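Subject: Threonylcarbamoyl-AMP synthase

B.,
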Amino acid sequence: MTKVWKIDLSASGGNADGLREAAESLREGKLVAFPTETVYGLGADAANTEAVSAIFAAKGRPSDNPLIVHIAERSQLAELTAPPDEAVSRLLDVFWPGPLTVVLPVLPGVLSPLVTAGLPTVGLRMPDHPVALQLIAASGCPVAAPSANRSGRPSPTHAAHVLEDLDGRIAGVVDGGPTGVGLESTVVEFGADGALHILRPGGIIAAQLRAALPDVTVLEPSADEHKQEPEAPRAPGMKYAHYAPRGAMVLVQGGAAEPVLARMQRELDEARSRGERTGVFTYREHAGRLRADHEVACGTLGDLDTVARGLYAALREFDEAGVSFIAAEACPEQGIGAAVMNRLRKAAGGRIVRI
Ligand code: TXA
Ligand code: MG
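Prediction pasted inline below.
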């Protein structure tokens, strides 16, 4: 049985007992899911190999995909990595706590080798969520936490999503309500070339990184991808099909809305005539425009933060509705839209129509 600790820090008392119990479970080597400002994480003591191996088992995650380690205070950094240089310090000053994971050299022997999947580096992050920070601080350990979904499923943005995927497989979930950003953290690493490489786009956008480090070249994945050897991606997790709804998705992208919507309708009609149960992923501006068995209008094109926030719940909604074919409308790749499109492309498994 998976325990649920409801935590509302705005309520008087805030369920301090629940947080204490959850932290105690982490210390005992158990798996505890918890909210962050991005998505729910599945936490374990990052120094405990048995606990970390239980994360991989519960998620069904390939063991060559390293985990992010979460800390609650800057002082914990010194236990895990060498003193950061000026540029790294600047990133941490500006973006921590927040949705930025920085890949840094790991000190030998301080973490379970499973956390880093044998790499000499570790992805470190300080989440900007009071529940996460209190839980990590109370546990007294660095907390390894991938997103709290079964491998290949959309990441969880509500405690109910965690239970959908992991009920009975983990000790407990700290339910702190819906997460904020809705997409995972941005993962960055300084390359030998001195440039800052965005390994995974996310909650912190490229323009923010450039503003914080005006003298540093910031490379986005699209500019980077073709230079990588496909068998050795720099963020190992990026090579797996991810964020997938159960139905097949086609992503339609174009300069103007009308031809995009027309193409989506054609795809939907063809799917329907094949006997598929159809779904349409669009935005408030285009709600009700297309014929399908199920529609999700996910946020508004006028504010892409709202799209990011609702994306993973939308993908799960198609599963619940039994949809077997989804036509998805692309959004502009500006700001957080770059991260949304990165996830939509993965959800579509590369089935992209450009018109
Ligand atoms: O927002 C988030 O980052 C969430 C919440 C729970 O904090 N966590 C999360 O973890 O998304 P996960 O394990 O699902 O994604 C970790 C990503 C993967 O793409 C992995 O390959 C990359 O970070 N990564 C981790 N350690 C790395 C390392 N040492 N070098 C390169 N990439 C690394
Ligand atoms: Mg994940």
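The domain at 248-354 is CATH 3.40.50.11030 (Rossmann fold).

T.
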